[in-house]
Every structure is written in C-alpha cells, then in structure tokens.
Design goal:
It comes from Agrococcus sediminis. There is one protein chain. The protein is an alpha+beta fold. It has one domain: Sortase (Sortase, Chain: A), CATH 2.40.260.10. About 15% of the residues lie in helices and about 30% in strands. It contains three helices and ten strands; from the N terminus they run ααββββαββββββ. Strand 9 and strand 10 form a beta hairpin.
Length: about 220
C-alpha cells in the first residue's frame, strides 16, 4: 500500500493538536460545528439516486460495493456511532492534514483502503471536536460509515494508547505486520484528555454492508 509521508506527518501534527505555529490546539471551542458538515453530506447522499452509485468489477468484491476515495479535500462520506447518541454524526473528507481536520471533520489518511475493502481505512480527527467522547466506546460497539454506495457497519474490537511514532497503526492490519484478511477501520485522536503526548486508537472490523437503497431500514439512518 502506498503511503505519503508528508500527509502522514501532517496528520500526526493534526491529531496531536499542534497548530502550524507549534501552539497547542487543546480546545476546539471555536471550531466549526462537528454535525453541520455531516448533515450537508447526508442531504447529498439522500438526493443521489441509487443509479448514481459507483459500479463495476473493480469496485465490487464478495457482494460489497466500494466508493472510490476522491481528491484531496473532497467529501467521502459520513460516520455514525449509535452508542454515543443520534447526533454523533461526523463528516469524512479526504486528507488527514491540519487544513482538513481543522474543519472539524474526519480526515482520510493517504493510502487508506476504501470503506468495506480488505485492509485499513484510517481516519483522524481532533479530540475536542469531531472525536469527542471516543473514550466512552466499548468493545462490540458499532461504527457506521455511509458513502454514496451504501452503509458499512464496523464493530469495535479494541482500543490502544500508542506513541505518535508508532506508525504501524497505518498498516493493513493496525499495529501488526500480518497480511489483511478483512476490512478494518482505525480512528486516531490525541491523548490524554488534557494533553497530546500519545494517541488514542480505536480499531474495528467490518461486520456488515448494506446498499444505499436500505437507508431508513435495518436500524440505518435515512
């Protein structure tokens, strides 16, 4: 898998809460709303007809359809964490850099696999903002990602606290050198609650995919 060091470094700085001048950004009190950009993407996805979804052999495997990751700074989808409440809805955009995550959205690391694809989809965001309350997650909780092609339901398998230098979290199997056998999701934010010397990592595995036409059924949002 291709990794872009400049984007990785940018994401490390962003999730550390370090601004472009090196000052800590430990509070997102004046950041844009975390839900507003997500609701805007939701409206776009609802308006898109099923025929608009990406199709083709290169975008389908084992009955799952993948949504290609677009160009830097563009919308990719929406993330939901039901156990944290109905309003825990977060926008996902391409690029885990300071510029992107400062929009109070989740940024997709360069080189990530597509949602639902075997390998690792890695998302980063500010702790005091888009990834607030991540500490409340427990093993077995669901994390739902919605794109133009459907809903990808991941189940949390574990939480880790790591050093910023432990870049193995970006591997196809997070924190492992094993070959990927399933679709993984990794969320990264800074730690501890009032510092940024480490990273809180949430790791989840894909357990279900449902097409976009299933919106509003099977516990899925409209």
């Amino acid at each position: 898998m291709r990794r872009n060091f400049s984007l990785i470094l940018g994401a490390v700085l962003a999730t550390a809460g370090v601004g472009v001048l090196g000052y800590p950004l430990l509070s997102q009190a004046f950041a844009p709303s975390a839900t507003a950009p997500a609701h805007a993407i939701e409206q776009q996805l609802r308006a898109a007809a099923p025929a608009d979804a990406t199709t083709g052999d290169e975008n389908t495997a084992e009955g799952i359809t993948f949504t290609d990751i677009g160009s830097y700074g563009t919308d990719y989808g929406v993330l939901y964490i039901p156990s944290l409440g109905e309003e825990y809805v977060r926008a996902i955009q391409v690029g885990a850099t300071q510029e992107v995550v400062d929009r109070n959205v989740l940024g997709v690391y360069d080189g990530s696999e597509r949602a639902g694809e075997v390998g690792n989809l890695v998302l980063a965001g500010h702790r005091e903002g888009v990834l607030n309350d991540l500490r409340l997650l427990e093993e077995g909780d669901h994390i739902l990602i919605r794109t133009a092609d459907g809903f990808y339901r991941y189940t949390m398998t574990r939480e880790e606290i790591i050093k910023p230098t432990e870049m193995e979290v970006l591997n196809d199997v997070p924190l492992s050198k094993e070959a990927a056998m399933t679709a993984m999701l990794t969320l990264i934010t800074c730690y501890p609650e009032w510092g940024n010397t480490e990273r809180r990592i949430i790791i989840a595995e894909l357990t279900e995919w449902l097409p976009a036409s299933e919106a509003g059924t099977n516990g899925l949002p409209l």
